[in-house]
Amino acid sequence: MDQTLAELNQKLDRLAAQVSYLTEQAQAAERQRQERAELMRDVMPIINDAFRLTTEQLEEVQHYADLDDLLCVLKHLLRNTRNLGMMLEQLESLMDLLQTVGPLSDHAFGVAVDKLAEAERKGYFAFARGSLQIVDNIVTSFSEEDVRALGDNIVLILNVIKELTQPQIMSFVKHTVAAAEEEIAKPVDISLRALLRQMNDPAVRRGLALTMRVLRVIGAQAA
């Protein structure tokens, strides 16, 4: 009798456990149903608005496209799915590259800004603006014939400039101008006695001789 009661109690316990499990499952299913119902209540207005907006947008383009066109576009998309996947992978790689290069580009941009600011401080931009003004004046001052003549004689002009810019010539001009400025600043005596006194100076006589020689060369060239 005791064994029978024990077996009966075990069966009742198993039955109670099964009933409890079924109750939990029913409660879980009820909760899921309620959640789905709440989700549908929340989503349905959004779906209705999206459907309404889609309908309005399709009505705007219905004169420009029909179902056949949409199907054709869909077919093209399906045919090029692999290409689209490769393009997206390349785009992801590009985004990764931009994220990697971003800090470097920011640093390079900062360095470029500093260099430009330094160039502005040193006057490079002001010099460039002045150079453009000089070029503009040159272009507007010379005609086409002048430019053609300049091109024909550019070699001769450059040779003359080359000769004039020799170190000894430049040094001679520099010292001559400096000495002339000093002499011009001094008072000038133009009396005959002062002129005769200067004629007794060997440097003056040498200057006159050189001047006469240069005038002779100029006269011969003019002839």
Structure description:
This protein is an all-alpha fold and 223 residues long. Among the domains are: 116 residues, no CATH class; 35 residues. The protein is 90% helix and 0% strand. The longest helix has 60 residues. It is elongated, with a radius of gyration of 51 Å. The termini are far apart.
Give a nutshell description of this structure.
This protein is mainly α and 223 residues long.
Task: Summarize the helices and strands and which ones pair or pack.
Elements: H1 2-61, H2 67-79, H3 81-122, H4 124-141, H5 144-152, H6 154-164, H7 167-185, H8 192-199, H9 202-222
State the end-to-end distance.
159 Å
As residue ranges, the low-confidence spans are none
Structural class call reads mainly alpha
Query: What's the mean pLDDT score?
Result: 79
Beta-strand percent range = under 5%
Q: Give the beta-strand count.
A: 0
| SSE topology string | HHHHHHHHH
What about the largest sheet? none
By DSSP (H or I, 4+ residues per run), the number of helices equals 9
Radius of gyration: 51 Å
General form:
elongated
The helical percent reads: over 70%
List key phrases describing it.
223 residues, 9 helices, mainly alpha
